[in-house]
Amino acid sequence: MDDKYTAMWEQLGLDISAHDGLLKVLGQFYGDIYLSQDKRLKGMEYLDFVLSEVHGLRIQELQKAKAAEKKIIGTFCVFVPEELVWAADGVCVGLCAGAEIGKESAEKILPRNTCALIKSFVGFKLAKLCPYIESCDLVVGETTCDGKKKAYEIFEEYVPMHVMELPQMKRDADRALFKSEVLRFKSKIEEITGRQITAERLGGAIRLINNRRRALQRLNKLRAGSPCPISGRDVLLVNQISFYDDPARFTEKINALCDELEGRVKAEEGIVENGMPRLMMSGCPMAVPNWKLPYVVESSGAVIVGEESCIGTRNTRDLVDEGVKNLGGMIDALVDRYMRIDCACFTPNPERLEHIVGMAKELQADGVIHYALQFCHPYTVEAYKVEKALEKAGIPLLRIETDYSMEDVEQLKTRVEAFVELVRQ
Ligand code: BJ8
Questions:
Q1: Could you report the per-residue pLDDT of 134-156, keeping only the tens digit for each?
Q2: What is the pLDDT of residue 139?
Q3: Spatial separation of the C-alpha atoms in residues 133 and 129, rounded to whole Å
Q4: Which residue has its alpha carbon closest to ligand 1 atom 8?
Q5: Atom 4 in ligand 1: which residue has the minimum CA distance?
Q6: Residues 104, 144 within the same domain
Q7: The domain containing residue 267 runs over which residues?
């Protein structure tokens, strides 16, 4: 990214020299992990372009939206019903939190044994590195895990926040609580944007976001082919970019990518040789630019065929019912859809186990890698049940706990290679 954006970054209050350092590392990392791949689809050029402009063109678009009196709303969790933001003519961006940079600043106010994702979003803000956070008129937090909800109490000293209370169970009373929180969020969005959310606007927003989910579902179906027509790394990137690109443009581009993929599937053209072990990832979300483990896996003689994660199928599997025409019915349809999310923050959480086993079978995965961030209790503890459920289905599992540092790459590689050898046999 060139100097043409420096004035914009200065205006946003970024630390320019630290930010330059971040972009340099990101560019290098991206080149090694992404651009070095063979037989990449032509349609991935759009994703390369978006990523190369992640702090440039997209931020410029957000600034233009602000100038047109639109509000920018940042989120950290797929539980936040973004349809309400788009319905009020706002712009919703998923804040990434996938890099270690800013960790020292974060550790000044958070315990060191906090998950890397939380340290990352706090660190990005404190070290003045993220033009997305600086563009936000409101950041939405949620009471999912303890680490996040306590960190938000500190974070709100730095950014305007709205925290949604999310249930931990799925009984009728929990649904009622969630519905009241969705309505409170709707009022907040109406207040901040100064726009009333009508049935017509919400219906349009539901279709807009459903269409994005449909394109990602289509991609997931196509990538399941054998031989595998696209790398897991590339699909992860597509999912990551879905959180901050313009949804209509993104949907169009992903459908074009799927058209190209269809041709590849028909011609039985794969990116790896047939018979290479097929692995599925399951667990914590991998936010941009967290590509470490997928890279390790795909350079260890395996290919990734699915992600059971919030930056993966947990976010795209369910659609909002489009058959409802009145506002109250649409709110209920939103509540129903979001309550189907099977985050490990729920207890008990049998749906997730069913989804993992079902997905692994459907994808003909030879094994599953359970990925959890260190100190993430919901996912590290739930890994036990995931392992048991997969064992019953005869599918091997490798449990990985890691963070965003590069220190354990060699150790991860040794463990992943041994697992690949095991499933190959
Ligand atoms: S719906 S997975 S996006 S909460 S990794 S911060 S859980 S200690 S990210 Fe998540 Fe919403 Fe659930 Fe999805 Fe806490 Fe774990 Fe850290 Fe986590």
A1: 999 999 999 999 999 999 999 99
A2: 98
A3: 9
A4: 376
A5: 144
A6: yes
A7: 203-319+343-424
